[in-house]
Amino acid sequence: MSRSAHPAGPRHADVLPEGRPGGSVPPGDLNTLDPRVWPRTAHRAEDGAVRLGGLDLRRFAEEFGTPAYVLDEEDFRARCRAWREAFGPDADVFYAGKAFLSRAVVRWLREEGLNLDVCSAGELATALDAGMPAERVALHGNNKSGAEIERAVRAGVGRIVLDSFQEIVRVADVAARLGVRQPVQIRATVGVEAHTHEFIATAHEDQKFGLALSDGQAAEAVRRVLGLDSLELLGIHSHIGSQIFDLAGFEVSARRVVGLLREIRDEHGVELPEIDLGGGLGIAYTPDDDPRAPADIAKALREIVARECEAAGLAVPRLSVEPGRAIVGPTAVTLYEVGTVKELEGLRTYVSVDGGMSDNIRTALYDAEYTVALVSRSSSAEPMLSRVVGKHCESGDIVVRDAFLPADLAPGDLIAVPATGAYCRSMASNYNHALRPPVVAVRDGRGRVIVRRETEEDLLRLDVG
Ligand code: LLP
After folding, report:
1. Which among 411, 323, 347 has a CA at the least distance from the CA of 374?
2. For 408, how many CA atoms within 13 A lie in the half-sphere containing its CB?
3. Of the residues 144, 301, 325, which should be mutated to test ligand 1's pocket, given the most ligand atoms within 8 Å of the CB?
């Protein structure tokens, strides 16, 4: 049997898990790069090969090797600007560094007027080393260590987001010892947990983050913080989930946060000046995903907050948000070289690449969906139902579960998986002693390594025998 698409029919339905757009939707022209999923500058040139940032990905592979994350710097900066402009001068956009952080990224953020959310000493060190002013940094985390708190307070971070009663005391003690008044927010658990298309108002409080609104813990945290001279309470923080398309969850969250601000005013006579509605805005991993533009998101969130504040008789506080994925996610692709191509008669073809779950754990961990395209040439061959897998010793080592690739795909071809800018390099591992791939920023026809490829020497340096 030739390596081609399976005809639609019962057999087809048997082998395709339901609802998987990569596999269940008949492919269009496999040479087309859907602009919803690919970085802004990606396009297929006349010669059939894909260019990103003006650079031919075949040249890229020769110069930087594979696997590699190829990051479109122009796209990254444009997305920063879009968020910045959408929220305007009376709001703050904190990029969530956990999605992907490096010194170059910090520099871009600084230049484009964004602030930065960090959640560990390592992220804080990267921010400070690359010259992000400490007052533009927020420190998060449900279990910040004493050393992390001390480092942040000493550096003068603009806010520490308090996550527990113990932490209130810890941060207050460090600030008092250092003779500073540390600005803080309190992370409230608002009773909404949103993921992807829907939001669920159950089981939300059964998780490790924040202090619940419903049982009065958040209000009690406010009481305690207001009673401590070394802490300056700026406002309330809420983060409701990941990969959210429906803004209804934010609406509930904003209403509840503003409700707490009203209670605080009534009880303590103070109007807190800030609220942060967190991150979690979704991106298109496949053409079926339909994310909202930053301008629409900003408009909706501002309106919700303004309306709720008016109803509560409160001045509108300064709003901030923390997008990570929505900024960096769409800006990068992972470039792989095709190795073994194995056809399983009547099932699908397994296309093995030179990376895998060590550079993208999201498919294995969250059942995430991705698309993939042949980028070193175009092809007019039949579509072939494929599963892109890595080289790790584990059958769950899947990068793209169901996708169509051209049936003439051969070892040595280059394929790329788009929308891998967020939570891929930042969650990469050394499983099987894989060497983590580099991140190369492309722009104006040139590539610049911003995080270099790991080497065997790097691995062995940690292994002290
Ligand atoms: N702010 C806070 C407090 C957060 O906890 C997070 C993400 C963000 C902002 C940024 O969320 P984003 O806009 O990037 O969705 N590893 C998972 C995602 C975990 C997100 C954790 N917190 C994934 O790969 O989907």
Report:
1. 411
2. 8
3. 325
Among 263, 292, 323, identify where a domain stops.
Answer: 323
299, 323, 347 - which closes a domain: 323
Tracing tokens 């509605």 back to the chain, one arrives at: 277
* 439 found inside a domain: yes
Find the residues whose C-beta lies inside 6 A of ligand 1: 96, 98-99, 117, 140, 239, 242, 278-281, 322-326, 362, 366, 422-423
pLDDT of 54-112, one tens digit each? 999 999 999 999 999 999 999 999 999 999 999 999 999 999 999 999 999 999 999 99
* CB within 8 Å of 203: residues ≥ 6 apart: 193
Rounded to the nearest angstrom, the distance between the alpha carbon of 76 and the centre of ligand 1 is: 17
| φ, ψ at 252 (rounded to 5°) | -65, -45
If you average pLDDT over every residue of the chain, what do you get?
93
SS3 for 440?
strand
Q: Which residue's C-alpha comes closest to atom 16 of ligand 1?
A: 423
The pTM (predicted TM-score) of the whole model is 0.94
